[in-house]
Write a structure and sequence with these properties.
This protein starts with a helix and ends with a helix. The longest helix is centred in the C-terminal third of the chain and has 26 residues, at 215-240. It has helices at residues 2-23, 25-30, 33-36, 38-55, 82-85, 108-114, 127-141, 166-174, 215-240, 248-264; strands at residues 57-62, 72-76, 94-99, 118-120, 145-147, 178-183, 199-205. A seven-stranded mixed beta sheet has the order 1-7-6-2-5-3-4. Helices cover 48% and strands 14% of the residues. α1 (2-23) packs antiparallel against α4 and α8 (166-174) packs across α9 (215-240). It is α/β, with parallel strands linked by helices and 265 residues long. It has ten helices and seven strands. The chain crosses the membrane at residues 12-31. Pathway: Lipid metabolism. One of its GO terms (molecular function) is 1-acylglycerol-3-phosphate O-acyltransferase activity.
Length: 265
C-alpha cells in the first residue's frame, strides 16, 4: 500500500508542478515579481496537502518567532527534495543560489530568473564567485532571505555532519543573521528513492546567530547548535513513528546517542 501511495503521490506531485507552471505562466511573467511569487508558494502549500492526503505525512514548524525581520540567511539541514520548497510559504521573499545548469531547464529556469535567483558555476573561482557575492549582497540589501544549505548537498538522516566553510564566508561578508533549521524530512522522503512514508515530524527553526562573531567560531557554533537540535529531533521523530523504516545512518546515530545517554545517566 505504501508503494502504491508513493507512486500516486509522485505522479500527481509532478503533474501538479508542470500544469501550474504552464497554465499560470501568463500571469506569472506579467505580474510584479513579488506578486508572482504567490504561484510557487501556493504550489508548495498544495504539495504539502497532497503529501498529507495521499501519503499521510504531516509536519509542524517550531520557532517561527526566531525569523528576523528583513534580510537574513536561512541555513537548513538538507536531506531531500522536500526541504528545497517546504518553507517557501512562510518566508517573505526568499532567494536561492543555484547551479547555473538549473537555469537552462525550460519553464523552471524562466521562473527562477523572474525571481532573480543567483546562478553559479560550482567549478568556477575568481571573478565568477565575486559576481555571485555581489548579486547576493544586492538581493539581501532589499530585505530578501537567502536560503543556503551548509552541507552543500543532500545528506541521509543521522549521517556524520559534513558542513562546507562557505557558509562562514557568507556570514562574514554579508554581515547578516544566520538562522539554523533542523529537521528530518529524509526519513519520509528519502533521497534517491521513490518511496514516501507516512508519519509526523517537526521542523525546528533555531534562534538566529547574530553577525559579528569570528568566522571560525561562528562555523563551530552553527554545527554545534544545528546538530544538537538534529539529534533531539531524530530521537523524537523515531519515537513518534515507531514503524518508520530507518536508513543505516539513522540507526547508527540512534545507537550512538543511546550509549552517550547511558554513560551520563
Amino acid at each position: 500500500m505504501i508503494a502504491l501511495r508513493s507512486v500516486l503521490f509522485n505522479t500527481i506531485f509532478y503533474v501538479n508542478l508542470i500544469v501550474r507552471m504552464i497554465v499560470l505562466s501568463p500571469y506569472y511573467f506579467v505580474a510584479r515579481r513579488q506578486d508572482a511569487y504567490r504561484i510557487p508558494k501556493n504550489w508548495a502549500l498544495s504539495s504539502h496537502w497532497l503529501m498529507e492526503k495521499i501519503v499521510g505525512t504531516t509536519f509542524e514548524i517550531e520557532g517561527m518567532e526566531n525569523l528576523p525581520d528583513g534580510g537574513y540567511i536561512l541555513a537548513p539541514k538538507h536531506q531531500s527534495f522536500w526541504d528545497t520548497y517546504a518553507l517557501l510559504p512562510w518566508l517573505k521573499d526568499p532567494v536561492y543560489i543555484l547551479k547555473r545548469e538549473l537555469m537552462w531547464i525550460p519553464l523552471f529556469g524562466w521562473y527562477a530568473k523572474k525571481q532573480r535567483m543567483i546562478p553559479i558555476n560550482r567549478g568556477a573561482r575568481g571573478k565568477v564567485m565575486v559576481e555571485a557575492l555581489r548579486r547576493t549582497k544586492e538581493e539581501l540589501a532589499s530585505g530578501r532571505q537567502l536560503i543556503i544549505y551548509p552541507e552543500g548537498t543532500r545528506r541521509p538522516p543521522g549521517a556524520e555532519p559534513l558542513y562546507k566553510y562557505g557558509i562562514a564566508r557568507m556570514y562574514r561578508d554579508l554581515q547578516l543573521p544566520v538562522v539554523p533549521v533542523a529537521m528530518h524530512p529524509g526519513l519520509f522522503w528519502p533521497r534517491r528513492s521513490t518511496m514516501r512514508y507516512p508519519g509526523h515530524f517537526k521542523v525546528r527553526i533555531l534562534p538566529p546567530i547574530l553577525p559579528g562573531m569570528d568566522p571560525d567560531a561562528f562555523f563551530a557554533h552553527l554545527i554545534e547548535v544545528t546538530e544538537k537540535a538534529s539529534d533531539e529531533l531524530l530521537v523524537d521523530t523515531v519515537e513518534r513513528n515507531p514503524n518508520l523504516p530507518l536508513p543505516p545512518t539513522a540507526t547508527r546515530r540512534l545507537a550512538e546517542l543511546q550509549k552517550v545517554n547511558a554513560a551520563t545517566a
